[in-house]
Amino acid sequence: MTAAPLFGIILAGGSGTRFWPLSRSQYPKQVLRLLGSDSMLQSTILRLKDRIPLERLIVVTNAAQEEAIRLELYRKGLTGVQLLLEPQGRNTAAAVGLAAVLSAGLGEDGVLAVFPADHYVRRPDQLHQALDEGLKWTQAGYLVTFGIQPTRAETGYGYIQAGPALEPGGRALLCSRFVEKPPLELARAMLAEGGHYWNSGMFMFRRDVLLAAFRQYLPEFYRGLMRLRGGAQVEEVYADLPPVSLDHGLLEKAQRVAVVPVDMGWSDVGTWGALPDLFPRDARGNVILGRSLDLDSRDCVIYAQERLVATLGLQDLIVVDTPDATLVCPRERVQEVKELVAALGRRYPLELSQHLTVERPWGAYTLMESGPGYKVKHIVVEPGKRLSLQLHRHRAEHWVVVQGTALVTIGTQVQRLAGNESIYVPPSTPHRLENPGPEPVRIIEIQTGAILEEEDIVRLEDDFWRGPEASSPGDDSP
Hints:
Layout: E1 6-11, H1 40-48, E2 57-62, H2 66-75, E3 82-86, H3 91-102, E4 111-116, E5 120-121, H4 124-139, E6 143-148, E7 158-165, E8 173-180, H5 184-193, E9 196-206, H6 207-217, H7 219-229, H8 234-238, H9 246-251, E10 257-261, E11 266-267, E12 287-295, E13 301-312, E14 317-322, E15 325-330, H10 337-347, H11 349-353, E16 357-360, E17 363-371, E18 374-381, E19 389-391, E20 395-403, E21 406-410, E22 413-417, E23 422-425, E24 431-434, E25 441-449, E26 458-461
Parallel strand pairs: 1-2, 1-4, 2-3, 6-10, 12-13, 13-14
Antiparallel strand pairs: 4-9, 5-11, 6-9, 7-8, 7-9, 8-10, 14-15, 16-17, 17-18, 18-25, 19-26, 20-23, 20-25, 21-22, 21-24
Helix pairs in contact: 3-7, 6-7
């Protein structure tokens, strides 16, 4: 019998709170470029596309992050990937179940492999070999996990205790139990005992086997998934689902669960404390990235995004500087950044949700200054790109070109503006910025009015994936 095709589910709905202040709710960890020119989401897709065609890759994300995720797919030419939106996060069981019932082209016995969007894999060829091994056992009806040989007593990971091999001399092992984020003494004991693996968060199963496990162990979820199959709205179904992880809800309870050990150079890049495993250290054990100067610090992680960061005589600290927020904490407490972010959300919601510079498919804008009734922004329009034709009901804008030549539409008038030239955009007037030249166009925009938020936009035409509609936060109004 011909094996069913392999589909890949990429979970991209997390907010990456432990990577604040670089990660924000509208600029989550999966779109960060920590390890090169590609974002973590782009890297995940690129390492899979030679094994799983783009049309069989499904990215599941939160609706609030749709703009950021679509931008990452667009910039890398990955628009053939399927995209499914969750109205709100309900943990991994709901996200995987959603993909299992709504993915286009997936047959009843189709095989699904699940991958977090924000992990690092140094040796993708080893991952591909593990997928081939896992595929054999999914065809036999197992729920398959992929385990990482632990190198230290880590309390931030889940563990899998392995049992006997599923076949004599075989690679796949029967799962005996799962241990979620153990205390330090238990982690040390499991490391010393052997036979335990870190849970990579990557899984594989046949669709029919997965749905049968939902029916047996999470009947409430199963009923919701069947409602989706019957045409119910995702928002309606999700409103009734509790947040449950796939590990806790299904795998810890199921009987036929296999683990395939794989040495793929894996890291979940879960916190700033993971960077010493991913970047070279200096002679004193520091990882120093960006525009930094250090004297006599030891075993620190120092990240400077734009400003100069100078450090002296630090020990075991994390220092992360961005243009509008700075984090300083002991390395041993880096897991607690998540709690710090929860507190920040109550007092400083803007610094929790977005950066001063916001990327758009046409370029980017940076908030330079704001106050009652005004905002000043620096807009960069890339060559050959243009913003949507739009209008604002509650604000006026004044544009000053500081570099390049812009093609400007104001109402029915179209004209070119060169450096040092400016123009006024009245409220409720259709307008558009365009860069017809070979170099970036830079513009200083001054907004004035009663409402200056991003939702004050009506889009009339757009070159990208946004149709003419009233905006929501995150649209491309500069």
